[in-house]
């Protein structure tokens, strides 16, 4: 649920925009530093923290509404800084063998994504627990970490040719399942807040699918559009997992409603209802490809951005106790829309806010757990799922940690012993977002 730009647009100094895990905060990284904006009002948007001491921040991830942030700058793309911004102190830093493409956090784990590997840290002491090596090339850093403490799954691409998703349990440190979600390579993945559903989109960008976890069963299939392919930039569930929104390089933001079709829907006697009923009935007699298209769900609601081509992230979150669609762009704007939760349709733009207002590497040995390679193909009843039926002794459970032999082979840093971070303790990491009245 983030967008990273290696080259800022000419008319904006922003390098990064992102919503945090529960959409209670918006983070921006820029040439001058980073800012944190609490999201609790339609009419007002004021940052609670600004830091101009670290320039060229192109990754900034905040742990919910706490004071813990993870930062990466263009100047040092291999270095991760974990900071307590309210105290103005650094908790630790790590350097990796290649550029950091994404960082994901929940209250149990911190995950660092490189192009061909992922590092799983224990967020309480920042030690490396596990390394997933030799992943399929992932130059866009596509991955997602569930915000749920128990269902703390990690999703990342399992292939460069097709839209396979590897699901890894960051608590047990075991591979869970491989989902063959799309024919084309992945463009975006996202977990719902409970960690029980996964949304996926491919580079083609016409079909959005939702799968249940951990079994990988397909629950929903939505068609974003019929005419145009699109570059899907973001997928995001609402807090209650009833809605799923997606934005792309087109001017339309789509919202899908995740509800099961009623067993005996009331008969629609309008000419459109009769036409839709006829299409659904005839779909069973058509070739599989055409039948699938006719049975796919359509947008429940849509919102229009000022023009196409905006690089953006979206989310659905309650503002003043009413669900709103929020879209933040690298162009430097936050758009807030009203959603009709019952009727859907075209969303109304309520407010536009500006986001462009005037905000030596340590070395040493680190520790790692076992490493995993992508799961291999196996037969399964579901065309979307490939289960990991067996695990070797090396990957079935965490192994004794051993230092890296080559300092460029993994994460280096964190040599200063840390006391256990009390992630849930507001006295150590106090929330700084004002409470919603």
What proportion of the residues form beta strands (DSSP E)? Answer: 35-45%
Helix content estimate:
under 10%
* Biggest sheet, spatial arrangement of strands: 1-2-3-4-5
Question: What's the helix count?
Answer: 3
What are the defining features of this structure?
41% strand, Methylamine Dehydrogenase, Chain H, 6% helix, globular, mainly beta, 437 residues, 5-stranded antiparallel sheet
Provide a compact summary of the structure.
With 437 residues, the chain is mostly beta strands. The protein has helices at residues 271-283, 288-295, 393-396, and strands at residues 2-4, 14-19, 25-30, 34-38, 49-51, 57-62, 68-73, 79-84, 89-95, 102-105, 109-113, 117-122, 128-133, 144-145, 153-157, 163-169, 174-182, 186-191, 197-202, 207-212, 218-223, 232-237, 243-248, 252-257, 301-304, 312-319, 322-329, 333-338, 345-346, 348-354, 367-368, 371-372, 385-387, 402-403, 412-413. The protein has a domain at 2-229 and 356-413: YVTN repeat-like/Quinoprotein amine dehydrogenase (Methylamine Dehydrogenase, Chain H, 7 Propeller), CATH 2.130.10.
